[in-house]
Write the structure tokens for this entry.
Amino acid sequence: MIIVDAALERREGAGEPPIAVALLGAGFMASAIVRQVGSAFRGRIRIAGIATRTPERGVKALAADPGARPVVCSGAGVGAALAAGATPVTADAVALAEAEGIDVLLDVTGAVEGVVAPLLAAMAAGKHVVLMNAELDGTIGPVLKRRADEAGIVYTGADGDQPGVIMNLYRFVRGIGLRPVLCGNIKGLHDPYRTPETQAGFARRWGQNVHMVTSFADGTKISFEQATVANATGMRVARRGMHGFTVPAGTPVAEAAAQFDADALLEGPGIVDYVVGAAPGPGVFVLATTDDPVQRHYLELYKLGPGPLYCFDTSCHLCHFEVPNTVARAVLFGDATMAPVGDPVVDVVAVAKRDLPAGETIDGLGGFCTYGVAENADVVLREGLLPMGLAEGGRLLRPLQRDEPLRRADVELPEGRLADVLRAEQDEALAAALSPSDLPFRVGKASRAGVSGSLA
């Protein structure tokens, strides 16, 4: 990214050490990030450690960086390994997050509950937090952002992922004086009934996690992605699940975007949404407007049409290639690529993927039981809907039909999860703006003490 590259070059020229990044996760994306950092950012950014439940995968991932010296160690050995110039690979994510010599904790897991403790530990230790984890951010991002602000560190989503690319485009459009009214994502497939069985071949071909691939296909991933964009902009969804217009493959995105109601977009705070089949794919787009007739004249001169809506797009998103830019933006400029701007605006709720019997335990994201759809956060609270990011492990108390949204009253959730404690704090803050009589369940008020205690 312009400015970031020059700043990193100056830092290196001044003899300052590379920015030290600890990774949570050692899967497909983590391995790609190691390769990118170890090649294009050598001497400026370094992978200083990896936390993973399977250390052998961490060692394998680090093979992509010839400068890494992987050492498998317990949490107690992390500090000594870092002091010796080695690259610790450990199952103790909290120890790595707290370790001296780490500047940034980068989460590439796609998990929710499993990463809360290390993220909180990193914040308490004054380390910036970068997420390639829309699932976490879309579930408890606003409360984590508040914690980050209190700690004086940057909490941010990543460049390269579609939400980050959307936010960069949104900031560009707003920066030239236009008003964004729709932040859009472009997808090639949406089928809510896809499962790990249907997606197994694709996952094998590309070496990806089959559950993650399934969440791409069944709409859960895009729901989380657009929820994070909504929470970073204050935009809402026009309807549960978004419009998600499907167009013939290769339709220019400006033509696809014409299906949105222009009059509705010009009112209110704007919406997040997506289209399926448009080009450029898999890119992103922003629809924007201006009330200035002279500026409209110039925009038409510059081939953006007569308005009142103007379509801006970015043709690609390059995932791991761009993530180091986020690290540099956070450390060198205190700048977040994207982060919630306040209480949640859009949430993601769980919907039955098939008929589900009472007593069944809900599997994880991209599984066989549920898919996620975006819904406005105030509606989620008022209707007592079950957040998709908290559904895993819940035991159904009644049968549900396919496509029926799950409610909190429908499930018995596992006990003792930090994500539930943080979510209760987040819900309490949002509920303060709503009438208590509107809420079908009691919002807890002891959440903060519970999470603070977890850091002791």
User: Anything to note?
Assistant: The domain at 346-454 is CATH 3.90.1210.10 (Type Iii Antifreeze Protein Isoform Hplc 12). The mean pLDDT is 94. The CA atoms of residues 104 and 384 lie 36 Å apart.
